[in-house]
Structures
1.
Amino acid sequence: MCGIVGYIGGKEKKELVLNALGELEYRGYDSAGIAVMKEGRIDAFKATGKLKNLQEKTKNFTSEGDGIAIGHTRWATHGKPTEINAHPHFGQHSYIVHNGIIENYREIKEMLTSKGVTFLSQTDTEVVVYLFEHNLQTSKSAFEAFEKTVLSLRGAYAILLITTIAPNSIFFAKNAAPLIIGKNDEKELFFGSSDAPLIGHAKEVCYLEDGQYGVLSKNEILLFADKKKVSSIFRDLPQDKSYAQKEGFRFFMEKEIYEQSRVLGETLMGRIKNNEIVLEELDEYLFDGINSIKICACGTSYHAGLAAGYIFERLAKIRTDVVIASEFRYKEPLLTPDTLFIVISQSGETADTLEALKIAKNAGLKTLAICNVDNSSIVRLADNTILTRAGIEKGVASTKAFATQVATLWLLSIFMAQKRNSVGKERLKSEIDTLLRIPSSLNVDNATHEKLRRLSKRYLHGHGFFFIGRDIFYPLALEGALKLKEISYLHAEGYPAGEMKHGPIALVDSKLFTVALLPKTMLYDKTKNNIEELSARDATILVISPEQFELADDFIKTKNSSHVMNEFFEMMIILQLLALEIAVRLGNDVDMPRNLAKSVTVE
């Protein structure tokens, strides 16, 4: 995700801000920039690619003495990762950096364009700085103009703004995106989007709450919410940088499991308006003449594609085939021009998936990439792209990438259902309402996590695991088995629950652990019967379900829900945490499992 830093003080600001941005590299970025104001003058620099490119651009620039500075590392959401789209963005006399997504930026942009404003970038951020300068014309102060601006924004934002109108101040605002204020005994003030860039500089920090905004100057911190002044509460800042990057979690994988609620919200942001799915990044005629879909991916992305296959056929009423990219490349596939070819990749550099995409392009198919990394090879090659907005994923075993891929594909299936009129309005409304509630349902329940931690000691020694589920829970069972394999090094297989009696049940005994997904909304009685068959053969069974299962050796209760996808995502988190805790018990390196790489760029 994007990173933000800010500084008020007398040290060399360029070096301080660049070093602070370096502490945020773990979040991922594709461009970076800084703006420094001293004695009423602002100097700004931007560069694409790695921070070293920005360092090279600023090598002859110095900024000692009292002043202010802001900096930003960008992970593209609106507009390609170009220098024009990089932050800071500027108006006539103001500069801004911003993390998040402004949902109503188009309406603001149209209003400002009608007033004669000309925009340079493709970003949503640029409209905020011009709106601020527009509001200055009718405001008594720069702060009043900033307050008007912030209160008119919808969406997620962490904003820092500097202006020559108020040359000693940094204006800030926070909503659904992290922003921290830091201070020390030398009367220096800092901003950061995480603790990491503040360690070694700030002594105390204030973690801003959603809806808070204000202004910092060397001698004053003014903090507001809903036009009312509020107190800023500071606490001591831990000085462990590794701990700060992990935000208090033991492992990056654990942190990424917990942040799925937030990144799912960012995945949906700006894509649902007036109870309709809006995918402005897609070509208007992408679906014309399309009668089938072929999804191609590897590993976890393949499992997301399998889940999407059920959803596309159910909602969009379109035939959907899902294939493993490494197999697709060599099977001499039959490709027809009425097929939309969808590839899924976290990194956008997955070698097998990239080669499959080339085959589809050469065959003349329309192509669409579901990807987390803008300007990656797959994104550049595909006709259209929907970015999943998961942010960088440091844990090798994918968690939030899978969640955002499934959510993005579900979003796309509803979008296609709208276009094809394949389901009724009530069904569409139900799907969208449920989709909007998914981020809140992904908040990890601490009691459930603690139960899984205690439970994990029972599942360390046996001769393997079966993960079973039906329908869309079969791909989830595959993903649960893969997570366990990747980080625990225990043998695990995912199966459709109804397939047990067709061979695999021969392996069942008390040392064969079965993790059974038993949702109430999908084939409950059928799956229950399959589990009972395993119980009769003395399998050790962990059941995950909203209803108690008497024959289970262990049971994890989930919430009652009326929609299958609520159950899907809740069970997904439980499987991720189960794999994590078993691996921790075994003493494994959860973030860097043996023999695996994060991005598979070779065949």
Note: The CA atoms of residues 277 and 411 lie 7 Å apart.
2.
Amino acid sequence: MQKVLHISLLILIFSCGEKVDLLVHNAKIYTVNETFDEATAFVVKDGIFVEVGGEEIKNKYNPKSVVDAHGLTIIPGLIDAHCHFLQYGLESQQINLRGTKSFNEVLKKVKKFVSENNPKIVYGRYWDQNDWKVKEFPNKKELDILFPDIPVVLERVDGHAYLVNQKTLDISGINSSTKVSGGTVVLENGKPTGILIDSPMNLVKKSLPNPSLEDKIKALMIAEEKSFEYGLTTIDEAGLSKDNILLIDSLHKSNTLKMRVYAMISNDKDDVNYFLNRGVLKTDKLNVRSVKVYADGALGSRGALLKSPYSDKVDHMGKFITSYESMDSLAKIIALTNFQMNTHAIGDDANHSILKIYNKVLDNIDDPRWRIEHSQIISSDDFQMFNSKIIPSVQPTHATSDMYWAEERLGHKRIKEGGYAYKKLLDWSGVLALGTDFPVEKINPFHTFYAAVARKDLAGFPYGGFQSENSLSRYEALMGMTAWAAYSNFEENEKGSIESGKMADFVILDRDIMKVEEKQIPTTKVVATILGGNVVYNNRL
């Protein structure tokens, strides 16, 4: 029989005991404290956990509200250590091309959208040629015929390549002679195909209108609603402009936006200097103390920087998006501040380069907690360059999404020795921060947990798990989504576990993800999400 939980909190009056706001009891609570203790009850006052323990604490307090959890599982509020929160909300209003099986299917979806919406600019996202029978990049020819007069911008699933039509190229000033450091304008017979990889994409972004303030506020609210539905109470926004960070701050101050945000500053010189000159910006809802840098691109679009050529394109090794010299110079500047450097690195050469820079610059800094976002392909002799000062921030669902084609890109030896090697990374670093990278992957954090533990896709493939020697234990996976993620944000003293003195962010689940059969993990549902002692999502009212 399904357990019933009423989150429409029962108001009780007691005659004695310390007054508190909330008592939760009769629960299975994974506190995720230092000794990973379990508990059955806790009390909350002014948005903070006051005491955590057994049923005996019910007699010590006078709560305004009581929740009988009926034995349901409670975990700390989940932290997505790497995502694109604003972009998720913006793209939710665009053409969704995820799961398309051919370029013709992409064209059909675009035509349908245009006929129904009559947009001035066509935006779509999530196509992946690796899912198609013909696994080659598409060409803009059909888009030029169908849409000669309006810009069309279709972004690849990883966010590191565009397919655009000729109208977009003309507006952006891109032609066969265009050269942009850190990326590629793909040519065929000397003419642009419409595929832009990494840096040239910025020419399009600068040439087309930016989303309006109203568009961005709507997007943030959409992203918040969906995040709360999945138990996320803090998100690490992996790259925002100064203006967008200040917009979030203003929405927090007006209580329009409630989601706690760890914001990485996009690597724009003026934006970085703005924050570095002012110092860390920290409130209960916003933490700005890191700079997001791109070392290279993505593996799927062959933008990842490798030490030796791609196995399926032997004349190509990828490119730096940000030059080694620029990253080295920026690292030296950031090292003089209290900010982190959080660098996107996919390929083995990109990881080697940034590890080299980090280790040199951080040699005399005690607790920098600089991060490498993705840490996806590592040479076997480079793992030793990770240590307690350098945190790998990884996205387990990338392994189960990429496993179908990654070996084609890298060959068996590279993928086996250092591809998606989360357990090996944890052994060297001691800490892993786990995220989804939504909207590149789906927002569901229980897919993250499952992929980390099982190393399988949602269909249960492969049977034994993809390179299962690098699977994480359930303990390690939960730590990576709570306490370790908080640590990676310098927030371990305020969130990431259910302990006295910390923010009362917690999630009530419909099953015990630490004990249920592995195959039941991905379909886990959030019963309620509580932020600072207040219910922000509840599916059982």
Note: The longest strand covers residues 232-240.
